[in-house]
Amino acid sequence: MSSQELRVGMVGYAFMGAAHSQAWRTVNRVFDLPARASMVAVCGRDEAKVAAAAARLGWAEAVTDWRELIARDDIDVIDVCTPGDSHAEIAIAALEAGKHVLCEKPLANTVDEARAMVAAAAKARAAGVRSACGFNYRRVPAVSLMHNLIAAGRIGAVRHVRAVYLQDWITDPQFPLVWRLQKEKAGSGALGDIGAHIIDLTQFVTGQRITGVTGLTETFIKERPLVSDSSGLSASAGHATGEVTVDDAALFIARLDGGAVATYEASRFATGRKNALRVEVNGENGSLAFDLERLNELEFYDATRPAAEQGWSRILVTEGEHPYLGAWWPPGHIIGYEHSFTHEMRDFIEAVATGADPTPSFEDALQVQLVLDAVARSDASWVSVAT
Amino acid sequence: MSSQELRVGMVGYAFMGAAHSQAWRTVNRVFDLPARASMVAVCGRDEAKVAAAAARLGWAEAVTDWRELIARDDIDVIDVCTPGDSHAEIAIAALEAGKHVLCEKPLANTVDEARAMVAAAAKARAAGVRSACGFNYRRVPAVSLMHNLIAAGRIGAVRHVRAVYLQDWITDPQFPLVWRLQKEKAGSGALGDIGAHIIDLTQFVTGQRITGVTGLTETFIKERPLVSDSSGLSASAGHATGEVTVDDAALFIARLDGGAVATYEASRFATGRKNALRVEVNGENGSLAFDLERLNELEFYDATRPAAEQGWSRILVTEGEHPYLGAWWPPGHIIGYEHSFTHEMRDFIEAVATGADPTPSFEDALQVQLVLDAVARSDASWVSVAT
Amino acid sequence: MSSQELRVGMVGYAFMGAAHSQAWRTVNRVFDLPARASMVAVCGRDEAKVAAAAARLGWAEAVTDWRELIARDDIDVIDVCTPGDSHAEIAIAALEAGKHVLCEKPLANTVDEARAMVAAAAKARAAGVRSACGFNYRRVPAVSLMHNLIAAGRIGAVRHVRAVYLQDWITDPQFPLVWRLQKEKAGSGALGDIGAHIIDLTQFVTGQRITGVTGLTETFIKERPLVSDSSGLSASAGHATGEVTVDDAALFIARLDGGAVATYEASRFATGRKNALRVEVNGENGSLAFDLERLNELEFYDATRPAAEQGWSRILVTEGEHPYLGAWWPPGHIIGYEHSFTHEMRDFIEAVATGADPTPSFEDALQVQLVLDAVARSDASWVSVAT
Amino acid sequence: MSSQELRVGMVGYAFMGAAHSQAWRTVNRVFDLPARASMVAVCGRDEAKVAAAAARLGWAEAVTDWRELIARDDIDVIDVCTPGDSHAEIAIAALEAGKHVLCEKPLANTVDEARAMVAAAAKARAAGVRSACGFNYRRVPAVSLMHNLIAAGRIGAVRHVRAVYLQDWITDPQFPLVWRLQKEKAGSGALGDIGAHIIDLTQFVTGQRITGVTGLTETFIKERPLVSDSSGLSASAGHATGEVTVDDAALFIARLDGGAVATYEASRFATGRKNALRVEVNGENGSLAFDLERLNELEFYDATRPAAEQGWSRILVTEGEHPYLGAWWPPGHIIGYEHSFTHEMRDFIEAVATGADPTPSFEDALQVQLVLDAVARSDASWVSVAT
């Protein structure tokens, strides 16, 4: 095992913090890497809770001020797992302090914040300080394979993209007004939370960027019970109610710079769809399809095969030949959601340890933000059906 | 068997004509109905070909002028299976001559033609002359079941509709310029041909109408080899080329009058998707999904079941309890595409014989036309992604 | 259309009779064949019922004595659709009278009867009189494709076969004692009715014959309500009860003469499986899988493809390149259960009209009977688990 | 977090050792338990390799003699991850030394060894020393849910079980003669390695025990290249060849003590099936089906629902209501193969810490061994098909 150490401090310890911790604990147990991550400290505002989280999640220390974390000499990496409204402040401060930064997605709540982060990242990069945004689904082996097959020309020019990210965790009108439903904390609703994932993922696998959009956003339930205390996705209902200030669903059509056309839909109201990130790409010579609820599989249609044998192949992406999987279990033994983070840390550690820029960059993440912004503005473009 | 006879004359004998003929031949062999269809004559312009088609498809006579067909006393029903550019003329003339009319979809190539047809149908209706448009997929048992479950409130208020109709029969740039790729014959491309089906089907199953749209249309291959002779979907390539004047793909977002939001996509460039009409509807209390390539199945998510047992149920729609299926085979024995036409004729015969109006009406079909028109106009509404 | 006529007389008009009638009516409408079937007469014991069936199903005449049918000069083909106990008598008499015979499966209720039928068929064959047994599933396009791919060596030597035919139509103990549950009428239960299908189908697709077996049969419900009148699969419950004298389920292991090993299971008690004939074949270089509930699909695993791209391909068997399908609808438009009979009649007509022997022969069907017999005898071979 | 500590020593560090290590590292990070596992030492014969494994997998110490491990005072639990030929010796010695024992499956290579282990476990149990056998698939949440639904009577009396465990990792004749292909090391081939899993799993979920069997075993490739060094499932080919002394595939039919009949198949030659442990159970009132390649899903057919709505429900077993999953991620976020071991450790720790007997017991595991033995003996029971 490598003797080089990357000392990590993490800010935030809810859902994302737990997922990142599992990855930091596991990554060097599975992958041979040029550096070893050590889990130095976790930061949260509530002293008792963050101490409990540190013990539970495996962090050596707990602190309550992220500025303190950034000021320490014994930390090389700041891992930002807080809600989007604090990303810019923490990430920029960390980069300026010479810390490598891994920032959860979406990069920020506004385009302006994202632009400031990009500027900070560019400046830091010149000094050898690295940054990346945590679009972890790029590291699902099947998504990585999808990217590789398209990049290798296996389906030819891409014509169609159709992407949905469907959940149903707030269909109940009594589900409370957690931070993810408040614009000032979360920036947007389904659009930024899960829509951002499919924007990044489809741009990643196709190698094309979205240039224009038209669509809509919708808030089905406009008032919800307040919560006194809530973290992450779970919450217990309170008594008074408050306004939902983000979208429940966002739907849009897009054109990509390589000539493809696309449909996108992000919703938290798709009853029965729990975590259905589904992406299909149709090319001149073939097609690919992925579903996060079956993340160990990739469907591949190869239109260059003999006509009578053409079909959608369900590739079980669990072989040593597949991305990341040589380090895990024998063929056919599936992995889970959390492995995408372990792979993210694997690639981040490798890049930082070898002096390379990890991906996706803050620039990549800004481009996602610009698309989100265009979708929000497109609400006005509407054609009525005549009667 | 009933002694009442419905004497049918059919115009057109290509793909749709063959499908309708199979249905007219079969319908009284399977269903107990108040009237019996007799296949009196088929009409086409080429004398030799229409004679061969009559013999092959089971029509007693062949004629070459549809006006002659309409003029005959021994014909009660005119079944219009021609390309869209002749629908209005034939259907209006037939209605005026007191013939019941079954007209293939889309109702017409333009809104103006469709409005004229509606006027003719309304006038005829007052005289007991019936008319319907052949959106045959309403008669797929699983689609009918989907409609019934939504109408019965099993999924509550509908929130989301997502519908695609994906084919790939013209991805080859050498595929020739058949009539379906010419605006003057076909009106539009994927939009009117297959997009019309998903517009009608989703409005039918949800009971909601589309009020506004925004989207795009795209023609990927703008020039194709000419054909001297081609009918239906198949054609052999010629030498010179001509302009493709219809869309290869149409994508749009819609709002429905019951509060639902929707995405639609129709394409002939979705490599590997042969006849993938897929519709999913999410409601407050459940969801339903259908795929024409597996038309004997309906997926149903019932969110009122115990939490630990909720899941997407694959209902094999082949039981006596399911729409239309009591007349066919024992449970588990699947039916095919052509059966949707047999069911269409079944319902048409029953309505006409009992003096009722068959569905979908010309008015229903006009509304589809209005949506197609709005989509075509929406191409302009576009928001650029900032850089 | 051909001027040669094959004049058909059918014995029996229940479930199988209806399915055969649909096929006889349709076959020349879809396929170009050297002869044209004409539906001369149907035979049944109840005069009123058979007359109604003739009118409904499209037979020109109805008769009540099969001997009369065989004696007529204006009939070329006898189609035997009765329960198994009368197959031998009718088929042998017909062959001796110089009629071509198409006999439903299983060929007979006993090995002795089947041997007598084979002798009669051999004798008739020498005089140009043809015979075949109606294992219709050989004519499902996906099954035919499966056969062709194995015969072409696409999966190499076959190692494993696993076949089930699962239904659930008698799980209710109140379902009455129809003829299919009586040994004297049906010969056996699930074993001969549906087990026969998977024995024939697997031997057909692999080109290997079963040489030895070990297994069991089971009757879960041993007493059932009597029915005064019942035909086919449906029946209404009576009051008194009688003994079920056939198996509800049969399970066996087999060795095939090409070195493959196999598992078989036929059951009418597999709750939720309506018509689940599923066959998987694993070879050295690939595998194939089929499911009758999705009969338009064939799954193909090609182990000679690049390792990272290997997967189970779902071939939608609806293309012009696929067996039988050039005559039907455009790509992606699925067919149903009944089409297997239309294809059976297609192949039978072609063989008879061109003086060839149709398949499967009575000899092929006898071999199935011999396997059924061995399974019934294997019940005794049992090893107790020590305690 | 609990202050009670369970100090673990593990013997073996190949595939199973790595999987167990991942589970020991993770279990207290995810679950609230009455004791905390500490990874004291790992044992292997090769000093350098075991030291590297300890560092990689997270064990504080590495030792080369398992007797030394057992002799230490600072170890409470011995986790046996070696090949089957050493299970009995290590486990019995550990139990006699007062150590709790978790032993990988199959319990032993022979019935005699298994009986001796049961005797040792019974004696130890009287002294409060615990033991369990590592049939980890019982701890897959979907399998646990399957067990719970059957135990709750949701499908009524069980009629049918069909279970396969299909892999294809040795279809290549050049794959070398690793220890898993040698009888003296592995006891048997597919039968004991993967067949044991489906025997245990089906007995677990149904609550019924196998009382009799008939079947066969087969070795397709009888000679393979030798390997000088090989561990686990992977190996590099050598030059000389040796005899394969275990089965490549085992197929059998069984009767269970509750009246169910069953088919079982275990094979390493099912091309395209990587880790296809599939179990279906049909009961009077419903059915359940599971596939390890999609281990986050359970299929449930509830025959008590309205007839027109019955179908196979795909339950995504990722909700807080499902076994084990409240401690992991939000709904819809899938877990992997390795989580079954984390759950196994969870249940083992809880049982040991609270003075209860963990399951499955050595007695349960002996019963599996007795079935394996009966299958091996049943090879002789064979009925030839007459000619």
Automatic annotation (TrEMBL), chains A, B, C, D:
Gene3D superfamilies: Dihydrodipicolinate Reductase, domain 2, NAD(P)-binding Rossmann-like Domain. InterPro entries: Gfo/Idh/MocA-like_OxRdtase_N, Gfo/Idh/MocA_oxidrdct_glycsds, GFO_IDH_MocA-like_dom, NAD(P)-bd_dom_sf. One of its GO terms (molecular function) is oxidoreductase activity. The keyword Lipid metabolism does not apply. Keywords: Oxidoreductase. Residues 146-288 form the GFO/IDH/MocA-like oxidoreductase domain. Residues 6-125 form the Gfo/Idh/MocA-like oxidoreductase N-terminal domain. This is Oxidoreductase. It comes from Dactylosporangium matsuzakiense.
